[in-house]
Amino acid sequence: MVYPLGFAENSIQLVPDGTLVLHVLIILVMVYVLNATLFKPINSILAAREKRTRGRLTEAQEILKSVSEKLVEYERALRAARTEAYAFTEHERGGELQERQKKLDEMRAKLAAAVASEKEAIQNQAAAARATLEADARGIAVEIGSRVLSRPLTNADSN
């Protein structure tokens, strides 16, 4: 019995016949059916999952980048604020030092004036004391001279 398209039961065929076309056709139909029913949905699920994973990874990288940029900006602003604070402090300190120096100069001037007036007062007191001592000394000298000479002295004798 002869089978159409080479369907032979117990024989090994080395020459391709019509079954080869049938097998290729069945494989192509099976690939089409598997693609439509199994591979495309799985591939779309895997693609969506990959997209979500990469999307989240990209989102996380963007967040980290944003955080690092904000940290750099914060540090820059902090340095600027510190610099401004140091400059303000130095300015205030300089103003206070000038005020202090001005007060010290005023006090030194007052002290110099007080010392000068006290020196003048002491010189006046010394001059008055000298004049008093000189007058007392002349009076004592006249008295001593009159006792030694046992007579009163006159102004002509005391010079």
Written description of the protein model:
By secondary structure, this protein is mostly helical. Helices cover 86% and strands 0% of the residues. The protein contains 2 helices and no strands. The chain has helices at 18-149, 155-158. The model has no long low-confidence stretch (mean pLDDT 86).
Keywords:
single chain; 159 residues; mainly alpha; 0% strand; rod-shaped
Give the helix/strand layout.
Elements: H1 18-149, H2 155-158
Gap between N and C termini, in Å? 189 Å
Q: Low-confidence parts, pLDDT < 50 over ≥5 residues?
A: none
The total beta strand count reads 0
Mean pLDDT, all residues? 86
Overall geometry comes to rod-shaped
| Total count of helical runs of at least 4 residues | 2
User: What summary fits the major beta sheet?
Assistant: none
Structural class: mainly alpha
- Portion of residues in beta strands equals under 5%
Rounded to an integer in angstroms, the radius of gyration calculated over CA atoms is 63 Å
Helix content: over 70%
Order of helices and strands: HH
